[in-house]
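Input record (one chain):
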Amino acid sequence: ALRFMVQQRSGSIINIGSVHSTATLSGAAPYAAAKAAVVQLTRALAVEFSGYGIRINCVSPGAIATQIWRDAEASAPDKIEFLRRWLGHIPIRRVGRPQEIATVVAFFASDEASYITGANLVADGGMTSMLTGSESSEEVRTS
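The corresponding structure, as predicted from the sequence alone:
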């Protein structure tokens, strides 16, 4: 894609990272390392190709209601405890919807984002902004 974009002297690439690029869990080292690499690759390529009119950005989602989330929820021995534990780490107390990530991607691809390159937008309901891992006693919402 870059060859074509260089020839036309314009383009937009949106990579998909993860909150694991900045905060992670035990047992997720390979995934976290790969996602951190995606964020750095985004930054390096943005610098390298900005002179060709190519913008390169990254979206790093948190917990999103995808098949991976549904599988994890379904395999949990106690669904209520699973939701309490996970949503207790998300300040807005819900899992994101795939459409919410698609909206961010569409924004980055649009002319509205013409002055943005090398950015990593974290869309995680505030998960990585929490200062502690303590869980809230507030009731959680699932939608």
